[in-house]
Specification:
There is one protein chain. The chain is an all-alpha fold and 81 residues long. The protein has one helix spanning 2-80. It has 1 helix and no strands. The longest helix has 79 residues, at 2-80. The model has no long low-confidence stretch (mean pLDDT 93).
């Protein structure tokens, strides 16, 4: 009976070892995917920062255009009178 128990324990430990190896491989894969996601998020953050820069420049240009239009409208209104 003791041999059967030792054989059973050995089999259970072997299966547990295989299962742990599978979990380790899955964990490595998950870490790799998380690293890729982190890199992607960093790239997205840089792109968003770049877009904000472009929008800021366009906002400045639009403000200058609006000022010129207002000045032109004022000049045209003064020439009428």
């Amino acid at each position: 009976m003791a041999e059967l128990t030792q054989e059973l324990m050995l089999e259970l430990l072997t299966k547990m070892h295989e299962h742990i190896d599978t979990l380790d491989a899955s964990l490595v894969e998950i870490r790799s995917e998380m690293h890729c996601m982190s890199d992607t998020m960093t790239s997205m953050q840089q792109e968003i920062h770049s877009i904000y820069g472009v929008l800021g420049r366009h906002e400045g240009r639009l403000e200058r255009i609006e000022k010129r239009l207002v000045l032109r409208e004022l000049a045209e209104a003064q020439t009428r009178f």
